[in-house]
Amino acid sequence: MTAVTVAAQVATRSADLQLSAEPGSITAVVGPNGAGKSTLLQLVSGQLRPSAGEVRLGDTLVAVPGVHVPTHRRRVAVLEQRALLFDHLDVLDNVAFGPRARGVRPAAARRRARAELDAVGCGDLAARRAWEVSGGQAQRIALARALATDPQVVLLDEPLAALDASVAAAMRSLLRERLRAEHRTTLLVTHDALDALALADALALVEDGRVVDAGPVVDRLTRPRGSFVADLVDVNLLPGRLCAPDRLDLPGGDHVTGLASGPGPHPGPHPSPGPGSQLGNAPDAAQAPGATGFACFAPAAVAVHADPPGGSPRNHWAATVATVEPRGALVRLRCVLADGSPVAADLTLAAAAEGGLTPGRRVWLVVKAAQVTLYAR
């Protein structure tokens, strides 16, 4: 049995979303702005009705055209960027609000609220008003309020995005501890690869209103299948066709030599695939000649030369500098190969200045084969 099943369309948003999550799993949902991540969460929470298809929570059908279980009758809790605490209530009654709204008697609701506040390290704040606590404390209190309702599913909509780095790190650890301890099925919308890697079992990529790829989070972050996830983890990704265990041919006639990568690790449960999704073990690059594949390497692995390099390195490509972006002590060069493929390179300020590396400059890019990973789609 799955804990969440979405197989629904929303015509007004051009969305056709297919996703399922196993009980107790945490699925990171990523994708560009406007791709459909919020639509997915709203279908699960009941804030949005599907125009076709269905939404199930466990065995219960909660949405289908003509049938709609309202939000307050679904065992779903939502935690967003803003804590949205009630200013007119103290912290204890903020947390007790959820159980009381579900019919729990006041005394029992407050007992549960105290237990949840203690569990998130905010028991000493029970008598304060919402406006008397810090942003990090407010988010911990909001988590306590969410879990006090015994939700079947927890929906996290970028809950760490508005927090300072140190506060976000502590909140990330707390989320991992609380969600894992209570075996809560969770959908986590995030733009942070660290959130996905630290919290999730699986990753689902949403683009243009569809789940286009889904699978184990470690595999998807270490071997991305598309430009959005590659940008998320800050690596170069070149698509092409595998023609040998250690070679990928690029569309423009260049090729990439690297190390073949077999199937990645599978850490726990993961979502079911939607149309076009790639789930489970990807074929080993060495066993898939002629298949669509990728070359993946870090910007720091790219050397930039003003003239053709000597010694015939295995990976060297002519390119044009498109942009030059200062990044502290480094400079990020964004270059374009002959076929239009983008490649980023990180250089020191001194190297960029000495090489006269400005937009429009023709250069040669060199990457050692040992720093390139090849894998099939």
From TrEMBL:
Chain segments carrying region Disordered: 253-287
GO molecular function, a single term: ATP binding
Keyword annotations from UniProtKB, A to Z: ATP-binding, Molybdenum, Nucleotide-binding, Transport
Bias-annotated ranges (Pro residues): 264-274
Name of this protein: ABC transporter ATP-binding protein
Gene3D superfamilies listed in its UniProt record: 2.40.50.100, P-loop containing nucleotide triphosphate hydrolases
Record SMART domains: AAA (SM00382)
Domain spans labelled Mop: 310-376
Domain ABC transporter: 1-233
